[in-house]
Amino acid sequence: MRHTHVTFARRMSTEYHVASWADLQDKLFSNTYDDALGRHRSPFIYRGMNDANKSLKTSLARLGGPYEELERHLLRNFKKYAHTNVLSGQSNWNWLALAQHHGLPSRLLDWTYSPYVALHFATNDLQRYNQDGVIWVLNYVKLNQYLPQKLKAVMDKEQSNTFTADMLDKVCKTLEELDELAKESFLLFLEPPSLDDRIVNQFALFSLLSSSTQLLDDWLEEHDQYCDRVIIPKELKWEIRDKLDQANITERVLFPGLDGLSQWLKRQYSSKQSEEE
After folding, report:
1. Radius of gyration of the chain from Cα atoms?
2. 225: exposed, middle or buried (C-beta count within 10 Å: 0-12, 13-18, 19+)?
3. How does DSSP classify residue 238?
4. Based on the structure, what is the number of domains in the chain?
């Protein structure tokens, strides 16, 4: 395994260039042993991307323009037009998770506790097999030390390393209140409710920056000792994909329903020489 310190998206990050499937397993599961528990309980979360050159820009930021002014309007209208029995009377944080889950632009980013689920999202697009993929690896446990004291107190009381909507509501109930908790922006990790099998099967959670205008790449520049990038060479993607399929890490499982089934079958029966769409 080759690793270098490189500049990426205005930040310094340790990049690991894996050379084989075995090399990849070694990196993704390294440093996961918890001495206190005497078990392998990982402090890491993962995000897989088909293109190693893409940044961690949120769907809200990708709207462009004064996107920070649009956030509250997007969420307000989502709540207004969603079915009344979806999350009636529920926390704004659950509404935000639901909106992100269904594709509404937000400041949330999707992560997973599973390195194999992340690998799926780094190898699921056959049209990008001419590009290196990447797995972002964050030590979310260590990153919690930068939270404001009010949020740390809630986590300590609950003995948790992530937030639920109920936990966040004890300190702040809106995005505006979250922004006001500290002068410097901070990062927290939010576990969504089990809205459907997709969230459960993907072992999913969200990252949430206190400022909608702060880019996660920039924030991680200041805390890069807790962030790695595992580069998936394009030459290795087919082998990884085939082995994930054999391990049943597929669209059929991660996106339960007819859409996921169709996506899986389309990819399963595609050849290496299939025409680009």
Report:
1. 19
2. exposed
3. H
4. 1
